[in-house]
Specification:
The chain has nine helices and no strands. By secondary structure, the chain is mostly helical. It has one domain. The two termini are 16 Å apart.
């Protein structure tokens, strides 16, 4: 799968982590029992996220040999904050509303690192055409705004928190927009766009559940399947840039 890497041990290790992540995420869904509309146990969800943190640090280590360590390190820091957000939302570290708000903050910080990594990479690759970047950002800001309005806001009794999550949604959309601005110029990065879009979709569903009583059977599993897949595509996009420069 990662045959372009010079060291076969790297290929084996990254493939193992990818397989472990899939087993934990999908296996937790397939083999779990349906409790309160959720099949995935907490430990498989969190373990799958931790696996991506390990994968991120592995990519950062490997990237030293290819000149892509900066991109990989920023993504790894972002993923680490994502894992912190997962722990908070699972009420492992603290409980109550503080855990939920802390999770939002952790994810927001993580996306600042994602955006920085993608934007810097575009500059380094010469994929910095302003018109394409701006068009991509506007597109995803509109998508996020519409998603927020129809899923989170419309039909609810609007409070400060409803408005508070709008800039958060726009921040996540900025990651997708930055990725799309890059992919429009370097087509190999479309999986990164899909990853960022899945993350945005996942958090839009969370917002609808928290603030607008959105609920359906296995909602939380859908949230994790989209979120986990999105994070994987973001972390493993390091391989795309290595392939691109070889």
């Amino acid at each position: 799968m990662f045959t372009y890497l010079d060291n076969p041990a790297y290929e084996t290790w990254l493939t193992f982590l990818l397989a472990l992540w899939a087993i934990l995420l999908v296996g937790g869904f397939v083999l779990g029992s349906n409790k309160d509309g959720r099949r995935m146990p907490a430990w498989t969800r969190l373990a799958s996220s931790l696996t991506l943190v390990v994968a991120g640090f592995s990519w950062a280590f490997i990237s030293r040999e290819y000149g892509t360590q900066g991109y990989a390190l920023f993504l790894t820091i972002g993923m680490t904050f994502g894992f912190l957000g997962d722990l908070l939302l699972a009420h492992v570290l603290v409980s109550g509303k503080a855990a939920n708000m802390g999770g939002i903050v952790a994810f927001a910080v993580g996306h600042v690192f994602y955006i920085t990594a993608i934007w810097r990479l575009g500059d380094q690759l010469g994929a910095d055409t302003f018109a394409l970047r701006f068009a991509a950002l506007i597109t995803w800001w509109l998508v996020a705004g519409l998603g927020w309005y129809f899923v989170v806001f419309r039909g609810s009794k609007a409070t400060f928190l409803h408005w508070f999550v709008l800039p958060y949604a726009l921040l996540l959309a900025t990651t997708a927009g930055a990725a799309m601005g890059l992919a429009l110029q370097v087509s190999a990065f479309w999986p990164l766009v899909i990853g960022a879009a899945l993350f945005l979709a996942s958090d839009t569903l969370i917002g609808g559940n928290w603030f607008n009583d959105l609920n359906f059977n296995l909602l939380h599993d859908v949230i994790w399947l989209t979120y986990g897949s999105g994070q994987m595509l973001i972390v493993y996009s390091v391989g795309v840039i290595i392939q691109h420069i070889l």
